[in-house]
Design brief:
- The protein has 414 residues and is of the alpha/beta class.
- It has two domains: 159 residues, Leucine Dehydrogenase, chain A, domain 1 (Rossmann fold, 3-Layer(aba) Sandwich); 153 residues, NAD(P)-binding Rossmann-like Domain (Rossmann fold).
- It contains 13 helices and twelve strands.
- Strands 9-8-7-6-10-11-12 form a seven-stranded mixed beta sheet, with helices on both faces. It has a five-stranded mixed beta sheet with strand order 1-2-4-3-5.
- β11, α9 and β12 form a beta-alpha-beta unit.
- α4 crosses α5 and α6 crosses α11.
- It is globular and about 55 Å long.
- The chain binds nicotinamide-adenine-dinucleotide.
Length: 414
């Protein structure tokens, strides 16, 4: 996974003609911490897990990134995802670096009290390396607002009242309005920018969405609200399509009640594997890694892909799609709405001042619009695709901040 995530970095580094030693400096994590987490589980057994935190880069500010609880979590995964966070925070220009971490446990098969215990033990052992000015975790796969609340509480026992140590907290515990829908809203924002650039309106386009979880459902709701037709949606239970446009709020209510899109009567059922090659103008992959790969990329019909998920397009598929002239709005730009509102949450925590939802949304729309324009400008400057441009922009921003901190005998320009 680590090697694959570096493919796009090197493509952008080639555009900037970066020497090997600078690449190594930019890619190497600043610090990697591994801890043993031993708990007595609810059934009286002793359980041992591994906890990881990879802190990649803090040239632009405290490091920021999710905490994932998953049996497949390991140092390699954490390093690859920490790296991506550095570039993502730089693309949307929030004053953070990148980090990622987690525990190799499976909370879906654990009593909640065990999840609470492993979280407390993780914080107890990581308290010296995380904090509001060093490294600020957030929810990721299988962690949520509740877990963030536990982290804040545990950390505050050692450091005093510290709501800014984590983001994605419950609203009652210094969370932010608008955080839940933020990633989906950011997807809508960058699509709005792309359509405007092409002289199109939302009303003119049809959209297919893979995944109807946090990102997919909020993106679909907001895109439909702006007037586009959501003609197909797929999740792990199946697919549902309606050429006239699905009633997305009704679908959302159905999924809340039934756990998936399967059985929704407002459209025709289809096999969820067909969603990637659906006949539509815009495709929003918002579920899985590598959903678009070398075997289905050539059959993609959409002319715009907005990557709601992390890493939904493999490097081979990326090349095929670029050759076809498909506009790919890359993950490090398209799904950065979540980390942007996390930043707003942290700002509110530090200022001890609460913004209303309107303000959060307006600031997010502005940040995403500016980030899209900045990436577009770099794409124009070097005549490159939007993904490579996003990495070039990020590497420049991180590199310039790193260089501005030190004195070098040899001049390096970026
Ligand atoms: P989620 O768990 O809420 O939703 C995942 C969705 O994917 C579900 O609807 C599930 O049914 C669907 N899915 C699973 N297997 C599928 C399959 N085979 N075919 C079609 N759909 C399938 O997760 P989420 O928070 O919405 O995250 C989705 C993606 O977005 C992940 O890649 C995540 O890393 C990324 N992301 C999320 C956020 C965020 O704020 N939640 C921020 C940035 C990136």
């Amino acid at each position: 996974m680590l090697a694959e995530s570096h493919v796009y970095f090197h493509k952008a580094a080639d555009v900037l003609d970066l020497p090997d030693n600078v690449r190594t400096i930019l890619l190497t994590p600043r610090r990697t911490v591994k801890v043993e987490i031993a708990i007595e589980s609810e059934d009286g057994e002793l359980q041992v897990y591994n906890g990881y935190r990879v802190q990649h880069n803090m040239a632009r500010g405290p490091m920021k990134g999710g905490l994932r609880y998953h049996p497949a979590m390991d140092e390699d995964h954490a390093a690859a995802l920490a790296n991506l966070m550095t570039w993502k925070t730089a693309v949307v220009d929030v004053p953070y670096g990148g980090a990622k971490g987690g525990i190799d446990c499976d909370p879906r098969s654990m009593p909640e009290r065990d999840v609470f215990q492993v979280t407390r033990s993780f914080v107890e052992q990581m308290k010296e390396v995380i904090g509001p000015t060093t490294d600020i975790p957030a929810p990721d796969v299988n962690t949520n607002a509740k877990v963030m609340g536990w982290i804040m509480n545990e950390y505050s026992k050692y450091a005093g009242f510290s709501p800014g140590v984590v983001t994605g907290k419950p609203l009652e515990l210094f969370g932010s309005e608008g955080r839940d829908a933020a990633t989906g809203r950011g997807v809508m924002d960058v699509l709005a920018a792309a359509l405007e650039e092409q002289g199109k309106s939302f009303e003119e386009v049809t959209v297919a969405v893979q995944g109807f979880g946090n990102v997919g459902s909020n993106a679909a709701l907001l895109i439909a609200e702006r007037g586009a037709k959501i003609i197909a949606v797929a999740d792990h239970t199946g697919g549902v399509a309606n050429e006239k446009g699905l009633d997305v709020p009704a679908l959302d209510a159905w999924v809340d009640e039934h756990g998936g899109v399967k059985g929704f009567s407002g459209g025709e059922a289809f096999d969820n594997s067909e969603i990637i090659t659906w006949d539509c103008d815009v495709l929003v992959p918002a579920a899985l890694e590598a959903a678009i790969h070398k075997d289905n990329a050539a059959d993609v019909k959409a002319s715009i892909i907005v990557e709601g998920a992390n890493g939904p397009t493999t490097p081979e598929a990326d090349e095929i799609l670029n050759k076809k002239g498909v506009l790919i709005i890359p993950d490090i730009l398209a799904n950065a709405g979540g980390v942007t509102v996390s930043y707003f949450e942290w700002v509110q925590n530090i200022q001890q001042f609460r913004w209303d939802e309107e303000r959060v949304n307006a600031e997010l729309d502005k940040k995403m619009g500016r980030a899209y324009s900045a990436v577009r400008e770099v794409a124009g400057e070097f005549d490159i695709d939007m993904r490579t441009a996003a990495f070039v922009l990020a590497i420049r921003r991180v590199g310039k901040a790193a260089l501005a901190r030190i004195h070098l005998k040899t001049e390096l320009t970026l």
